[in-house]
Design brief:
By secondary structure, the chain is of the alpha/beta class. The chain has ten helices and eleven strands. Helix 8 links the parallel strand 10 and strand 11. Keywords: Hydrolase, Metal-binding.
Length: 303
């Protein structure tokens, strides 16, 4: 039977409720000095604000080695009543010191992913519920191919879904060719993130036709064009028959982006994005995207 693996244990997909399918409670990177998400009270306040806006579940895509604070997540989930799904995986090389990735060479990476999915993250007892990897700008470098090969191996061993950061929304078809073609991962087990950042309707349709999930996750941090084009991109996919492949998320990656610190934060998804998309595709589809789709995308017949 399909289950979503949360930090408090496996639940039926229907139990997730309204879900932010891509966000971060904790995150550290040398690319974001001084902007770390590393404050437990702030994370609790953000989850509480999301809950007050009608949210019930959050999928944290923070992978291995980026300060995901897995040990804090169960208590935060209990305190706020928000279900949390935690990730294993590896981001782009620029987010790590070279020594860390070097230690995972030699066939160790897939084993790390499998261990965190099935046994738990370190001594926390928290089991990851997805594998997060990343592509590059309009392509895949050697690091991306290495991490995706390990993710595919871990998927075949466990059934876990693979969530992919697309750099500025690009490279989706390269990811599909590698993961779903060469590496044999079923499209319905792959989530392509940040497609709102590159609103190319042809690429979107081709990616959707592969069976992959298409995630529109987070307001623009650079300019507004992708924000106002996102609803029309979602509508185009729905009209093309791919409304059942969509996910929505907030992708809060810096402290200043939290709602409790004056940014849009997690509640923005429910306060603004939900209403805006309902004008384009109808409230019924938007509610399915927020409730039914995450359970299908992250639900797994764990092996």
């Amino acid at each position: 039977m399909t289950r979503v693996r949360t930090v408090l244990g496996d639940v039926r997909p229907a139990e997730l409720g309204v879900c932010d399918a891509h966000d971060h409670l904790f995150l550290r990177s040398p690319r974001l000095p001084g902007q770390e998400l590393d404050d437990v009270p702030a994370a609790r306040a953000e989850l509480a604000a999301f809950r007050a806006a009608g949210g019930a579940a959050v999928v944290q895509w923070t992978p291995y080695g980026m300060g995901r604070r897995a040990e804090e997540l169960p208590a935060l989930s209990r305190a706020t009543g928000v279900r949390i799904v935690c990730a294993t995986g590896l981001h782009q090389a620029v987010h790590y010191e070279p020594g860390l990735t070097a230690r995972l060479r030699g066939g160790k990476l897939a084993g790390l992913f499998v261990s965190e999915l099935t046994e738990g993250i370190g001594t926390t007892g928290v089991r990851a519920g997805l594998i997060k990897v990343a592509g590059g700008f309009h392509g895949l470098d050697a690091h991306a191919r290495w991490t995706m090969a390990a993710a595919a191996e871990a998927h075949h061993a466990t059934g876990a879904p693979i969530a992919v950061h697309l750099e500025l929304g690009t490279g989706a078809l390269d990811v599909v060719d590698l993961l779903c073609g060469e590496l044999g991962v079923p499209g319905e087990r792959v989530i392509l993130g940040h497609l709102n950042r590159s609103p190319d309707p042809v690429v979107h349709r081709q990616a959707a036709a592969s069976g992959c999930w298409l995630a529109f996750d987070g307001p623009s941090r650079a300019h507004h064009a992708t924000d106002w084009r996102m609803p029309e991109a979602v509508r185009a996919l729905a009209e093309a028959g791919f409304g059942d492949r969509l996910l929505l998320g907030g992708d809060t990656v810096t402290a200043g982006a939290r709602s409790v610190d004056g940014g849009p934060g997690m509640p923005h998804l429910l306060r603004r994005v939900r209403q805006r998309l309902a004008q384009e595709v109808g409230a019924e589809l938007v509610e399915r995207v927020l409730t039914e789709h995450p359970g299908r995308a992250f639900g797994t017949r764990w092996t």
